[in-house]
Amino acid sequence: MTRLLPVLLVSLLCGACSHSQKKKSASELEALKTTVEDFHRRVRWKDYRFATRYVVPERRKDFDKSLKENKDEQDLDVTEYEIEGVEMDESGDRATVTSQFSWTRLPSMSVKRDTVTSEFIFRNGQWLLEKQTGGPFDGALP
């Protein structure tokens, strides 16, 4: 599954972008793929300091505050994630990524599974996470 994920993500990105009026260059699409994969990987391994760099600057403090209030470095364990789809808007400057997250948050030992919708925006030559709903970070980036 790990080897299939990059191939699936690239094909989803290419398919999503083929209908947009303003097409992104191959390097911009590759940057989106890298950003999406790396953000997911960073939160999976609790590397929140680096993951926060992918959040739009004006919301980083809110995201950081939520992580601290929920004691995510200690209590949150993302056990699995799977990127399911990517949709580009017509401008080509926004991408909506749908993924599945499985996680536990102490003191509960129950595994929760939820669909997460992440909105990425292309700003100043890079893709940044602007909004996220569902999953363990629901409400951190409204």
Could you outline the blueprint of secondary structure elements for this entry?
Layout: H1 4-17, H2 26-44, H3 48-51, H4 60-69, H5 72-75, E1 76-88, E2 94-105, E3 112-123, E4 126-133
Antiparallel strand pairs: 1-2, 2-3, 3-4
Uncertain segments are 17-21
Report, as a whole number of angstroms, the end-to-end distance: 31 Å
- How many separate structural domains? 1
Order of helices and strands: HHHHHEEEE
The fraction of residues in strands falls at: 25-35%
CATH topology: Nuclear Transport Factor 2, Chain: A
Q: Note the overall shape.
A: globular
Mean pLDDT: 88
Count of discrete alpha- or pi-helical segments spanning 4 or more residues: 5
Textual characterization of the structure:
By secondary structure, the protein is of the alpha+beta class. Helix content is 36%, strand content 32%. It is built from 5 helices and 4 strands. The chain has helices at residues 4-17, 26-44, 48-51, 60-69, 72-75, and strands at 76-88, 94-105, 112-123, 126-133. Strands 1-2-3-4 form a 4-stranded antiparallel sheet. A hairpin with a 2-residue loop joins β3 and β4 (126-133). α1 (4-17) packs across α2.
Summarize the structure.
The protein has 142 residues and is α+β, with helices and mostly antiparallel strands. The chain has five helices and four strands, in the order H-H-H-H-H-E-E-E-E.
